[in-house]
Design brief:
The protein is of the alpha+beta class. It has one domain. It has helices at 30-33, 39-55, 114-121, 147-160, 266-271, 285-292, 302-305; strands at residues 2-5, 8-13, 16-21, 26-28, 58-62, 70-80, 83-88, 103-106, 125-129, 133-138, 167-172, 174-176, 182-186, 192-199, 204-213, 220-223, 226-227, 236-237, 241-246, 251-256, 259-265. The strands form three sheets. The chain has a 15-stranded mixed sheet that branches. The chain has a four-stranded mixed sheet with strand order 11-10-9-16, covered by helices on one side. The protein starts with a strand and ends in a 13-residue tail after the last helix. The model is unreliable at 311-318 (pLDDT under 50).
Length: 318
């Protein structure tokens, strides 16, 4: 079941955009939730938001109306030291198998705070240190209210994926604003800045933020994504790959089940997927837009920045 939002509005003040979102008040099965929006109307409203931002006007633009709701999803791009950490969708994924994406997903459980769900969804990659330590990301400032939920999700995900660890250790993580970000104001909770994307073909608004992790020595990466259906009594662990990409060097170190399986140039890694297509076609648009809006130079990822903006009408699910 996915939760549905029936009241959302974009407030534009010159070049600043704030999306005001009311709490979800109903849920629907996945296929139904993919069709709750008047999709052509939603696309036109989002295009109008971008035009208003570009013109620097002050106005309000509704993103929902009677008979046209939306659903929400999102997550974070993980920056660790001089690398980005990116999961690769499983080869059996229903939509866009094997592509690279940011850490995140759809919200298929009851939730009260948009940012909390984004943070929980982004905990799908765990970091394992020497002596069996499981690193737990912890935020400072107003977002620290979500640290308990992050810890519970990280530990639960590791156990569900049968990952062995002897203790947990908190590490400080910083949430930073991407370039060209939109302020997300959900109900009465704290506002935060993220990249606003649209999957209007699946009735969804997606937000992608950026998390900075410290450079952890001797860390091992392991993905914990599982599929749980009503028909199954236990989760199916996907054992997806995790790419740790040097944004200055372009070297892609690929992990699976906590072990390095290969290390080579990112361009070679992407080209292996399908030699007939260009690099950008393999990647999830949310990842492309997140990389374009990194608030620092990333010379090895320039080909991502050169992709056309595909914010509206994307048809991906991460």
């Amino acid at each position: 079941m996915l939760w549905i939002i029936e009241h959302a509005i974009a407030s534009i003040d010159k070049n600043n955009v704030t999306i005001q979102i009311a709490p979800p008040n109903r849920s629907a099965p996945r296929e139904e939730a993919f069709n709750v929006a008047d999709k052509s109307w939603l696309r036109s409203q989002l295009a109008e938001v971008e035009r208003a931002r570009e013109r620097g006007v002050t106005t309000e633009i509704p993103l929902t109306k009677k008979g046209s709701a939306i659903r929400l999803g999102g997550g974070f791009l993980h920056i660790q030291g001089d690398t980005i950490v990116v999961p690769q969708r499983h080869s059996t994924a229903r939509l866009r198998p094997s592509v690279l994406c940011e850490c995140g997903g759809v919200f298929d459980e009851p939730w009260h705070y948009y940012l909390e769900m984004m943070l929980i969804e982004s905990a799908e990659i765990v970091r394992l240190g020497p002596d069996g330590v499981l690193y737990i990301p912890q935020l400072e400032g107003p977002a620290s209210r979500y640290n308990r939920a992050i810890e519970e999700e990280t530990v639960s995900a590791a156990r569900l994926a049968n990952i062995l660890f002897s203790r947990i250790e908190a590490i400080p993580v910083e949430m930073v604003a991407p370039l060209n970000s939109t302020t997300i104001q959900f109900a009465n909770s704290m506002p935060f800045k993220a990249i606003l994307l649209s999957e209007s073909d699946t009735s969804s608004l997606e937000s992608v933020g950026i998390l900075y992790y410290p450079d952890l020595p001797n860390v091992r990466f392991q993905d914990t994504e599982c599929i749980i259906t009503e028909e199954q009594e236990r989760a199916r662990y996907l054992a997806r790959r995790t790419h740790v990409i040097g944004y200055n060097t372009g070297i892609d170190t690929v992990w699976q089940n906590g072990e390095v399986i290969r290390r080579r140039a990112l361009a070679e890694e992407i080209a292996e997927l399908d030699l007939k297509k260009t690099m950008g076609r393999y990647t999830n648009e949310k990842l492309e837009e997140a990389i374009k809006n990194l608030p620092f130079p990333a010379p090895a990822l320039e080909f991502f920045r050169n992709q056309p903006n595909r914010m509206q009408g994307s048809n991906n699910e991460c």
